[in-house]
Amino acid sequence: MKKQSLKKKLSLGGIMIVAILTTFGIGMNYTFNSNSHISESGQPEYTEVDLSKYDGTNADLPIYIALNGDVYDVSEGRGFYEPGGTYHYLAGRDSSKELNMIGGTIIANKYPIVGVLTK
Ligand code: HEM
Questions:
Q1: Has this prediction a pTM greater than 0.70?
Q2: What is the pLDDT of residues 97-117, one digit of tens each?
């Protein structure tokens, strides 16, 4: 009798833990993803309008550049991309046209992809 109720308690505890972890997981997703649109591949989606916010003007935000459909976080090279930087004009937008001529491989090899560009 006692053993059975202990089993019941344990499985109830298991369900509670799963419920708490699931809620926490969903919560964390909302906390860390500044963008609420998630692509089918699980990557955050950014439109060009979304990207314009991440052009280096706001020092508290990361700096993003879209290249061939991927969104790169170039914050590590802030000096290039903040206002007054040589390549500020490439930041916060889809710069595929320019970067496919020169500089694109540097971006692709140096910086992490944090999302995808969407219409
Ligand atoms: C429209 C033309 C150009 C574009 C779109 C372009 C783009 C870029 C990009 C995206 C980077 C990578 C910056 C980073 O590490 O985040 C870069 C690096 C660099 N570019 Fe350009 N570039 C252009 C023209 C030039 C020209 C004409 C020169 C030289 C006269 C030049 C010299 C450099 C140098 C030296 C670096 C390396 C900076 C470093 O890592 O310290 N670029 N370029």
A1: yes
A2: 999 999 999 999 999 999 999
- For ligand 1, is residue 10 a contact (CB within 6 Å)? no
Angle at 84 between CA 69 and CA 95, to 5 degrees: 15
Structure tokens at 30: 């909302």
Residue type, 16: M
- Closest ligand 1 atom to the C-alpha of 81? 16
Residue recorded with tokens 């909302």 = 30
Q: Whose CA is nearest to atom 1 of ligand 1?
A: 98
Q: Model confidence over 81-98: pLDDT tens digits?
A: 999 999 999 999 999 999
Cβ(35) to ligand 1 under 6 A? no
- Return d(Cα 58, Cα 41) in angstroms, integer: 29
